[in-house]
Design a protein that fits this description.
8 helices, Znf_C2H2_type, alpha+beta, Double Stranded RNA Binding Domain, 45% helix, Znf_C2H2_sf, two-stranded antiparallel ribbon, C2H2-ZF_Transcription_Reg, zinc-finger, 14 strands, DNA-binding transcription factor activity, RNA polymerase II-specific
Length: 215
């Protein structure tokens, strides 16, 4: 290859130009050598036998297959939670290290993940992009819409292991479990009386507020 051609090829790597086209795969490359290599190995693409997705290398196929097998080989040594990808485990570890590098510019609340910050920002903007197709109620988080949909389907997937009572939301089950455990985590700051539900504490505090107003 002539010196001028080599220089031209090298310049393509610094620009967005990819003049060498592989028509069979509808792909383009900055260097002809990469194109030639891709053509030579073009029939050696690694294809997933389950969903027929094509991947460029075997390691990518192996990682992709975890989606279908459900395997989660990467385990957190702190809480024993498992993940299918090493990157997901790395993100999870930030929770234990209490790292929260993503900060809301409006209220300065920090978050461990960018996705959590993005969801939080909807509380400031008032956006509710997730809409129920049945009743048109809108929500700012997908998880809220998912929980809402159970009110239409009547599903109650969260079952109490003690009394077998079912609930549509995990939060409702968690509150219910306090009946069995006897825990009363909500304490009145005035008289130190404890309650198993925040709602009961709220009603109780009203008694103190009314007593003060009558004095």
């Amino acid at each position: 290859m002539e010196k001028s051609s080599i220089f031209k090829e090298d310049m393509y790597t610094h620009s967005e130009r990819k003049p060498h086209v592989y028509e069979k795969r509808n792909q383009s490359f900055s260097k002809k050598g990469i194109l030639n290599k891709r053509i030579q190995t073009g029939e050696k693409y690694h294809i997933c036998e389950v969903c027929k997705k094509s991947l460029s290398c075997k390691s990518s196929l192996i990682t992709h297959m975890l989606v279908h097998t459900g395997e989660k080989p990467h385990m957190c040594e702190v809480c024993k939670r498992s993940f299918s990808h090493k990157g997901s485990l790395k993100m999870h570890m930030g929770i234990h290290r209490k790292e929260k590098p993503h900060v809301c510019e409006i209220c300065k609340k920090p978050f461990s993940r960018k996705t959590h910050l993005n969801s939080h920002m909807l509380t400031h903007t008032g956006e509710k992009p997730y809409t129920c197709e049945l009743c048109k109620s809108s929500f700012n988080q997908k998880s809220y819409l998912k929980s809402h949909m159970l009110s239409h389907t009547g599903e109650k997937p969260h079952v109490c292991e003690v009394c077998k009572k079912s609930f549509s939301r995990k939060g409702y089950l968690n509150s219910h479990m306090l009946i069995h455990t006897g825990e009363k985590p909500h304490m009145c700051e005035v008289c130190k009386k404890s309650f198993n539900h925040k709602f009961n504490l709220k009603k109780h505090v009203y008694i103190h507020a009314r007593a003060v107003s009558c004095m």
